[in-house]
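INTERNAL TRANSFER SHEET
From: sequence group
To: structure group
Subject: Mimecan

Please process the attached sequence and return the structure record in the designated field. Keep the field labels unchanged so the import script can parse them.
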Amino acid sequence: MKTVQSTLLLLLFMPLTEPAPPAQQDSGITHEYGTDNLEETIFSQDYEDKYLDGKNIKENMIIPDEKSLQVQKDEAVTLLPPKKENDEMPTCLLCVCLSGSVYCEEVDIDAVPPLPKESAYLYARFNKIKKLTAKDFADMPNLRRLDFTGNLIEDIEDGTFSKLSLLEELSLAENQLLKLPVLPPKLTLFNAKYNKIKSRGIKANTFKKLNNLSFLYLDHNSLESVPPNLPESLRIIHLQFNNITSITDDTFCKANDTRYIRDRIEEIRLEGNPIILGKHPNSFICLKRLPIGSYF
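Return from structure group:
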């Protein structure tokens, strides 16, 4: 009887003596999931708070009707600054405008673009411009330098440069010119090399009154003679590679004044012309340096 009771007692207490499952591992997992759930709960609350706040704000907002929106739109339109003349022109989008200089080089324009009134320098080299007119530079009193090198210019109206009283440098090199226009009075440099200009395309007084002209480039044209009435101010004269066949004692000097000396001329180039300079020795007696060219 005692044995049976002992066995029953042993069986009753056996589960108490078995090792417990690893509670530490389970608690760890429970802790991790608990952290995730906590973060989700915080995020949900934060989102809900923001959402509710946003909802409350939205509910409290006064949504204007179409009429009030139209009034605001009209007021905005009236507050816009007035349009300037040059706002419509694309020149400074197509070209580069910088401190009074406009650079329109190699942009395939076929006419002079509208320029800002404060422009002093225009570089429009290597384009497709065929003609220059007085309208191109109307109301442009500040222009000091124009460069149209490498275009297709065939014609220039006589009044094109007449109002440009401050213009000092003008380049028309590498075009298709047959004649020269009236030039502005204050030019210091004029470049028309590599054109098709003939002597009859230059009027007798074209250069006479240009008392500031120092550099004259007319090489690689079709001139049959040296242009007349060249101003005393000239320092450099390039006439090489034309069709000049003769010169006279009055071309550079003064035939009736043997004391006359032309001080300022530093260089005259006449090579590449069908002229023997050695046959005209009296034509250079007023010069400090002989012209460059063939003497035999």
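Handover comment: Residues 95-296 form a domain with the Leucine-rich repeat, LRR (right-handed beta-alpha superhelix) fold (CATH 3.80.10.10). Confidence is low (pLDDT under 50) at residues 1-5, 7-13, 15-64, 71-89.
Transfer complete.
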